[in-house]
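hey
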């Protein structure tokens, strides 16, 4: 398991459209997912300890952001042949057990992750109402272990600012997580 950090936010870069199957049986597009005041695109998976450490906070923040007009979508791009825990069936289970308030989508070809430049799980892309990138940082100070209960909610506060002003914060702390398990990295 390789630990990576996300690159610096490429402010203003437009969101990239997609059409991916969700665990709910529906095909979702960028337009289906966006909120009135923005969209949070999250690359996550089921097996990553960094994702597991923040999953409850991620669900909480997605619910709170929805109240501000910012919708969220989670995309799983890992090759499940490398980690069976990331299978579509397990995605369905994880979404149900954690009561995801957002679509959980499978990027089977990994084309969407590559188009976005996603590098790790979790990797967050926060867009304003015009679907221009305004945030590419961490959820909070959590790593493989959850941060303290009173830790600053970096992603939530950044996306609240985006909802209110259309602009993200100048300073952003990169997200850290497990590398995306690319199909071509599979050793046969």
């Amino acid at each position: 398991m390789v630990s990576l950090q996300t690159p610096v936010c490429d402010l203003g870069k437009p969101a990239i459209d997609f059409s991916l199957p969700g665990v709910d049986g529906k095909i979702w597009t960028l337009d289906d997912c966006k909120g009135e005041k923005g969209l949070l695109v999250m690359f996550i998976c089921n097996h990553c300890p960094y994702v597991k450490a923040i999953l409850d906070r991620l669900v909480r923040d997605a619910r709170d952001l929805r109240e501000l007009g910012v919708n969220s979508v989670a995309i799983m791009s890992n090759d499940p042949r490398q980690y069976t825990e990331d299978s579509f069936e397990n995605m369905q289970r994880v979404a149900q057990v954690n009561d995801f308030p957002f679509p959980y989508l499978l990027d089977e070809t990994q084309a969407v992750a590559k188009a976005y430049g996603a590098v790790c799980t979790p990797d967050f892309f926060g867009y304003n109402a015009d679907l221009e990138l305004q945030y590419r940082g961490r959820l909070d100070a959590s790593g493989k272990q959850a941060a303290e209960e009173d830790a600053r909610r970096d992603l939530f506060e950044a996306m609240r600012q985006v909802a209110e002003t259309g602009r993200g914060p100048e300073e952003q702390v990169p997200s850290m997580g497990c590398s995306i398990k690319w199909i071509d990295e599979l050793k046969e």
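Helices lie at 30-33, 49-67, 88-97, 111-116, 154-165. Residues 128 and 165 are 9 Å apart (CA to CA).
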